[in-house]
Amino acid sequence: MKKACLGLALLVSQPVLADDLVQWWDASVTVLHGDDYDLAPSHRQTTVTVETAGAWKYGDWFAFQDFITFNGADSSTTYGEISPRFSAGKILGKDLSFGPVTDVSLALTYEEGEGPVESFLYGVGLDLKVPGFTYFSLNTYKRDPISSGNNSDGWQLTPVYRFDIPVGDANIVIDGYIDWVFSADKAGYEENIHFNPQVKYDLGKSLMGEAKSNKLFVGFEYDYWKNKYGVKNVDQSTYSIIAQYHF
């Protein structure tokens, strides 16, 4: 259930005409390196994440693929997710906003990787207007394991967010997600929460001006996972340094 930092803001998109099939898109590569990862062949690991996000005529999407190297253990693995959402407002051609909610979507996610981790998630996504945030969405899923031996069924609540803090001639960006799996199968899978914010400085804008804004970031990622992978009392708390480039 690990997700890389979600680049869903229009600030990092490639805009096109609203009537086009694809309305905006973003693609990025992130390199992370850190220590103290639990339940892995090595506590030290390097991850290269390729991700894309965008909006189209009937909704939006986010997808990523992690390529993880376990340093010192001479082994590696992969993990990825594909998360399309279908917007009721876009499909019906109506403004469905109410209170802080700006849109309602059918939210889907497919999780895949090595081992018994394949799952399909389906539920409802809400886009919210929250003061101070560049974007904030809240997705509620029913988890449906696919692969044999995967007992991560239950419900999942996933807020996704970003906010920007002006610093000098650039910004510090704080973005990420929280995966909270609740109502899980207590017989073999503990409820768990994965909090994964990234704190990044817009180095591209600082060095090369507005034309390179939201292109090159450096910073760190904090990774907290209570009952990691649903394993009772395995609580991960670690940092990674990161470099991220948006195309």
Can you put this structure into words, describing what you see?
The protein is mainly beta and 247 residues long. It has two helices and 13 strands, in the order E-E-E-E-H-E-E-E-E-E-E-E-H-E-E. It has helices spanning 88-92, 203-208, and strands at residues 22-34, 45-56, 59-70, 75-87, 101-113, 119-128, 135-145, 154-167, 170-182, 192-195, 198-202, 216-226, 236-246. Strands 1, 2, 3, 4, 5, 6, 7, 8, 9, 10, 11, 12 and 13 form a 13-stranded antiparallel sheet that branches. The two termini are 25 Å apart.
How would you sum up this structure in a few lines?
The chain is mainly β.
Q: What is the global morphology?
A: globular
Radius of gyration: 18 Å
Total of DSSP H or I helical runs spanning 4+ residues:
2
Helix content: under 10%
The residue ranges in which pLDDT falls below 50 over 5 or more consecutive positions are 4-17
Q: Largest beta sheet, briefly?
A: 13 strands, antiparallel
SSE succession? EEEEHEEEEEEEHEE
Arithmetic mean of pLDDT? 91
Q: What's the N-to-C terminus distance?
A: 25 Å
The portion of residues forming beta strands comes to over 45%
**In total, how many beta strands?**
13
The secondary structure category is: mainly beta
